[in-house]
Amino acid sequence: MKKILLLIIFFNSMLFADYSTPGNFKSWSLDSLVLYSGGNVTFSGGSYLFNGTISISQSDTLKIRTNAAVKLAASIAFNIYGTIIINPPDSVKFTSIDTTNKFTEMRLDALSDASIIKKLIFEYSFNGMRLFDTNPLIDSCTIRYNCNGNSSITVPAVNLFQSNPIISNCKIYRNYKVAIGGGSNIANAPQIINNFIYENNIANGNVPQINLGQSGTGTTLIKGNTIRGLYTNAGGIATLAAGTLNIIIEDNIIKKNRYGITIQNVNTTAIIRRNIIDSNNIQGIPALGGSGINFYGNSTLTAIVTRNYIRWNLWGVTIQVSAKPNLGNLNNADTSDNGYNYIYGNYHNDTIPDLFNNTPDSIWAENNFWGTGNPSLIEQHIFHKPDNPALGFVDYIPIYLPVSTGNNNIKITGYSLSDAYPNPFNPSTVIRFTIPSKQYVKLEVFNILGELVSVILDKEVNGGENSVTFNAGNLPSGIYFYKLTAGEYEEAKRMILLK
Q1: β 315-321/291-297 pair status
Q2: What is the location of CATH 2.60.40.2550 in the chain?
Q3: Measured between alpha carbons, how far is 402 from 352 in angstroms, rounded to an integer?
């Protein structure tokens, strides 16, 4: 029904244009529109005035290669059914004649794939920039102050319908609702690259700055952007796919939003890597948001989460229903999912929920840094099976420790802790470790609750390779962690006792 309604709107725009170019494969300029549009485009006071709805017809091209100011009258639209090329030396501005009574929109349609829009300042439109089944380049533009703050309808400043544009190097800010968005059941696969997207959602509704649904056969790419909030209900990036979604979110800085990233629904494959996701806590209500990353869906929602900084949010990573993100798995040949996330310092109500597994399934989260190398402290920051038997287990051992610690940037080299062998074991196993010189060493064993159950070593040992046998004859079957501490070096690994 939604698609039918949009098509009706589309054909009405074509039908009721006040002036349409002839559609005879000609190139047009703003000056030629002034000459031939019968007063619908005029020039006055250094600006081009659009006094009626203007349509660039199929096969025609509008080229704007010089600096220009274009002012549009209230409630009129600018429709591109052919091609538009905007590439001035400095800028072209599209704005309303009366900024308190906005023009309707600029609409690009199916045959405008060849359109290139560069250095455009686009502001004070009622419906923003609307893309229908088209894949233009939008680069180095400023998109601001668009859409209607009094409407209950969530209209993005850049509104996608079956479109795969490249949106790059733009500033998109202070729009009334969403910055870039498309319907959950509409296939869009934009490439959103190196933009500064900030302080959108002036209306302060429950919307994110980027809001997307399914990608169809394409892959959505969100890369290298800074996404910074201001209004307390504005999220960072949200997806709600009523269909198949393939998405890559990488190399972004996502700060000071209500939440960082939320991936919802089913049939989703996501790669989330090398992002800085911090301080997404501005609403301050943990029951309503504040996750660095939230996954909400069934087991067809899968994700690889690697090499991110997830810190200072109300929650770190939250997993709901039966979603299956992979935060680190060293038990396969694939090295793209080896963890290396820094997840720490997420805080609310005197708790530190760095990872909250609110599902019945186990979650891989190996080889990440949790702000400490102490398994007992890490256990306190992860909510999973030991906290509620109905929940799945989070496998966070081994722990990744950076090569430098503290503020002194001390290099930790020549140290290693090997896998216990055999593992699983009953009742004893051999633990080997290497240290560069003679020094004091502590080797401890903890249970799954983070409780200390044995101290294997607590003394000075020689440099080089060392080995020690651990006998667990007095312990019940289960998962245990062994931790080596030697000077500034800490590392922990997992072993399984099967009796």
Answers
A1: parallel
A2: 404-497
A3: 21
The CATH architecture one would assign to domain 404-497 is Sandwich (2.60)
- For residue 20, what are its two tokens? 């349409």
Q: Look up residue 343 and give its two tokens.
A: 């997840």
Contact 166, 137 (CB under 8 A): yes
The amino acid sitting at 167 is I
> Minimal CA–CA distance to 317: which of 326, 221, 400?
326
Tokens of 269: 């494959």
Q: What is the 3-state secondary structure (H, E, C) of 13-79?
A: HHHCCCEECCCCCCEECHHHHHHHCCCCEEEECCEEEECCCEEECCCCEEEECCCEEEEECCCCEEE
CA-wise closest residue to 17 among 114, 104, 85, 102: 104
The answer to whether the Cα torsion of 436, 441, 446, 451 is positive or negative is negative
On whether the CB atoms of residues 261 and 270 are closer than 8 A, the answer is no
Kindly report, residue by residue over 130-166, the tens digit of the pLDDT.
999 999 999 999 999 999 866 556 799 999 999 999 9
Question: For 219-246, how does the pLDDT look when each residue is reduced to its tens digit (9 = 90+)?
Answer: 999 999 999 999 999 999 999 989 999 9
The alpha carbon of 179 is separated from its chain's Cα centroid by a whole number of angstroms, namely 14
Q: Which of 45, 91, 36 is nearest to 71 (CA)?
A: 45
E strands along 283-369, which residues? Answer: 291-297, 301-306, 309-311, 315-321, 324-326, 342-344, 355-358, 363-364
